[in-house]
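Chapter summary example: a protein plus fe (ii) ion.
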Amino acid sequence: MMPIRRDLSFELPSDKMLSWHPAGPHMAHFYNTLSIFFPVGERFFIDSVRHYRDQGMVKDERLLQAVRAFIGQEAMHGREHEAYNAAYTEAGVPADRMEKLVDIILRGVQRIFPRSYQLGGTIALEHFTATLAHVLLDTPEMLDGADPHFEAIWRWHALEETEHKAVAYDVFREVYKDKKLRGYANRVVTMFLATVIFWSLCYPFYIYNVARTGGLFKLKGWWTAARYQFLKPGALRRMLPLYLDYFRPGFHPWDHDNRHFLEGVEALAEQYNRKAA
Ligand SMILES: [Fe+2]
Ligand SMILES: [Fe+2]
């Protein structure tokens, strides 16, 4: 699987920022809050992978090409989610300040942890996004009835996360090719840390953002969102087995072959091509 950088633009209607999801504003806020993490998170991923590429650790020509495409894709995701987050800030939540806080934390991680653990954190979070992407693509009702621009940006991001899900992982395998046990220890520790850090930021941000726009005491909205996340379609419940597979010692992202989702990617790319817009 060779990823392709696609320069797309989604022109999200900013007046629909809180109403774009059919399950209501509590669910729109959930997706919007996830978006806050992408631009700075993806810069962190690019830095981690690029470091080892520049060190000459990646020798295989195809993997080098995949790394270039990975960097290109993540840069495009960062740019489009930056626009998404700016519109979210305009809708009355402090998404810009939350982004800053995530940035400060990730810079702290870059100062404290060795490069090998930064790459470990990258593959952990790449697995996390690939898992979320799989569930999103495999469960069409998750975005059924959503505003088409918002649906398109989430589908595009999910498709490209699927396309490049093994790139950082393959770089990690190169780094640890003669130290498999240490590589496994790195994976377990960094997945644990990434999970704890991510959710302990994500849910407080999410609840705060709902509160800022007047939804804190709207219990029906919370119930709908909780049902959506954990029961039906149960986005997070569906993610759990895929997430746990990561702890298998011989795990590789393409053990779970879901490339059939990519059949629709070029049609979507054509529709939202930035140059054609
Ligand atoms: Fe991405
Ligand atoms: Fe990614």
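Key point: Residues 24-271 form a domain with the Ribonucleotide Reductase, subunit A fold (CATH 1.10.620).
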